[in-house]
Amino acid sequence: MCLRNEHHRSVSRACNTVGISRSGFRFIPKRAQADAELRSKVKEMTSRFRRWGLPRLHDRLRKEGHVINKKRTARIYREEGLQVRKRRRKRLSRMPKVVRPKESRPNEVWSIDFVHDWIMTKRKLKCLTIVDDFTKESVGILSGHSISGDAVSRFLSSLGVVPQRLRSDNGPEFQSNAFRAWIESTDIEHELITPGKPNENAFIESFNSRFRDEFQ
Fold it and tell me: pTM to 2 decimals?
């Protein structure tokens, strides 16, 4: 190609100079042709779900029937340089670490938090997310334009089972009179994390990150 562009030679003369056939010059590998559609789909999905790594990406492609072999997905993923960049950890001050009792069974500790967003009508959307710290599974999600402490209490009561300990931040919904009264009536131990230390509620923060990626 350089001979053609720089020295203005024909394809035949350029091929004779470097010692290859014209068919070899015009050859397109079958792998490239077969990968074109998959490569396009991989780029599309990684641009839509920016925090998805290779395992989640391949699982979705496999379910949609685009690919079976994980090595093929990994090769294209690597060639396109689509690896998820690791987020830099913030430098935390040297504060005494809070050691909490480790959960040993389901429904022993639940973590709760809010996720905020905006809908197309520019109205605020609020979602209450709940995760069981032992099973790492979502217990329930409540969404609405406004969720008060009383609404949180009623939703937790509707789940049919309550945890032994409930962990949350210091938000106004979790400090309201209605919520505190419900906590006392159910004899649940309410654990409040240190203000400005969301890492103390790591399970729900991790879930919320994936929740945002899934429904963005």
Answer: 0.59
